[in-house]
Amino acid sequence: MRAVLHDEVDRDAIDDAAHRLEWQLVNVIAAAHGRPEQLIFATRSGHVFLVNDERLGVSYLQGESLQGALPCYGAEDHHALCASDDLETIRRGLALTVLCASGPDEARVALLGRALASSDENVRKAAFVAITYAPWPELVPHVEAMRDGDPQSELREGAARWLATVCPTVCP
């Protein structure tokens, strides 16, 4: 299970929850190129990972029994966030679109497809970063369109790399 933390959750709130839930911090993995910072907590039933993902602009918990541990976004909150005019809010919404999904559905794929084709270069970049977490075959036509026609060479090249990496494993 994965739960994306609300923006107002700070380190003090995390420490308070860990104490209240009797989580024991057992390891801290520092951020490095291509790897977000992770705090690993031992719990009564296993482990909880707190991932501070700067690429997506969110922090999330991963593990079992996270219900009520800290204030988190709901699985459907991505719609409202993606409808914002604020780039950071849109970026968070796109992250929720992929992180809180158990898999692709028509609405999530359509939302990501619209973002990948946005007239705003920053929205397209945010959408592309988000889909690197979602190797869904349903996204292939949208990424092919980006590869073949995005005005930014960086995004065209990234789309080509995504397709080369993802298609051998998920495309029919």
Please describe what this structure looks like.
By secondary structure, the chain is of the alpha+beta class. It folds into two domains: 2-63, no CATH class; 78-170, Leucine-rich Repeat Variant, CATH 1.25.10. Helices cover 45% and strands 17% of the residues. It has helices at residues 11-20, 78-82, 87-99, 106-116, 121-131, 140-149, 153-170; strands at residues 2-4, 24-29, 37-43, 46-53, 58-63. Strands 1-5-4-3-2 form a five-stranded antiparallel sheet, covered by helices on one side. Helix 3 (87-99) packs parallel to helix 5, helix 4 (106-116) crosses helix 5 and helix 6 (140-149) packs antiparallel against helix 7 (153-170). The longest helix is centred in the C-terminal third of the chain and has 18 residues, at 153-170. The chain is elongated and about 50 Å long.
Mind describing the biggest β-sheet?
A: 5 strands, antiparallel
Radius of gyration: 17 Å
* SS summary, helix count: 7
Q: Low-confidence runs (pLDDT<50, min 5 residues)?
A: none
Between the first and last Cα atoms, what is the distance in angstroms? Answer: 27 Å
- In the CATH hierarchy, what is the class of the largest domain? Mainly Alpha
Question: What strand order characterises the main sheet?
Answer: 1-5-4-3-2
CATH T-level topology of the largest domain: Leucine-rich Repeat Variant
The helix-strand sequence is: EHEEEEHHHHHH
The class by helix and strand makeup works out as alpha+beta
CATH architecture of the largest domain: Alpha Horseshoe
Instruction: Tell me the total number of β-strands.
Output: 5
- What would the average pLDDT be, to the nearest integer? 88
Count of discrete domains: 2
Strand coverage percent:
15-25%
What coarse outline follows from CA principal-axis ratios? elongated
Range of helix content: 40-55%
